[in-house]
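User: I'm preparing a small set of examples for a lab meeting where we compare how different chains pack in three dimensions. I only have the primary sequence for this one, and I'd like the structure in token form so I can line it up with the others. Please keep the answer compact; I'll paste it straight into my notes.
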Amino acid sequence: MVQHKHSPSTTTAPTASAAPAAGRRPRLDPRFWRGLGLHLLIPLFLAAGMALAYLGAFGHPAPHHLPVAVVGTTAEAEVFAQTLNDRAPDALDVRTVADEGAARGLVADREVVAAYEATADDATLFVSSAASDTTASVVQKVFLPVAYQQQLPLQVEDVVPSGEGDPTGQGLFFLLVALSVGGYASAAAISAVVAPARTRLAARLGIAVVTAAVVAAIGTVVVGPVYGIVDHALGQLWLLSWLYVSTIVVIGVGLHPLLRHWTTPVLTMLFVMLNFTSSGGVFAAGLVPPFFAALSSFWNGAAWLHATQTVVYFAGQGIGRDVLVLALWLVAGLLVAGLVHLGSVRRTRLADELAPVTEEDEVVAA
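Assistant: Understood. Below is the structure token output for the 366-residue chain.
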């Protein structure tokens, strides 16, 4: 009987190089880190910008040359006013007025933020919460120790109070926030759908202006009939809001062909970081650092807020300068949109001229 011998198996064990290393993770491509860094750049920019702007403007509010008045024209009143100036030369700018009526008039005209009158029996501080509730609170803290030193009880009289539906006086500022967010969000939505290569500039700007009118109408309805914060001058409020929002949307739509995904961060910087901090809605210009106080003299948010406060609470005062500032911002936005459009057209033409001619193109041309 023949016995068959089985040969040992010729299958070899896998080598160390062929076997996957236990616990070893694949190395990430450097392009992954580059892409991650580029995507995080925008949120990091927004985080840093918001922190710098808001904490820089609102972190340490303090009076900076606040205009105030002292009632009285006697030598004693002049000495008292000069003493207040000398105590805080960078905080207050003190002037004297003849009587209580003049003091009320200056506060109502927003030429001074407060007026102080001391008599033999008491002291009165005239303020306006409609102009700025936070400023009215600050000047009360300034003059309360003064009245205490004079051993006089202090009464506070609100010459121009905010409306019953707006006890804090900040309803218009919150409307400014809503209009600004609606404006740059609309710009992003329009730019994502309406491609510059397929739509004429006039059509894109027309869509922007119409959208701004709708955003302004929504804000006006909410601040008016819905919540009753403003119960009059709604037509003027809508027109001012339309002018304001149109600027934001036009600038956003105009810049998008150039900035692309950086358009929204740039709009956030212009109309949130710098805009809200200089508008006077939280702290007036006299309470924020000089940089933000300087912005408030020409920034469109500050112009809008001052104009709307005028038509709602200070009827009869002019808004010509505020409207001019808003109009100039819109003109600047239109110029930016036009220049970016011309640049895009020029780049497209050069790209077409430098593109290689294919055989198919030659056949079509023939």
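A couple of notes for your slides: Residues 171-354 form one domain. The two ends are 91 Å apart (CA to CA).

User: Perfect, thanks.
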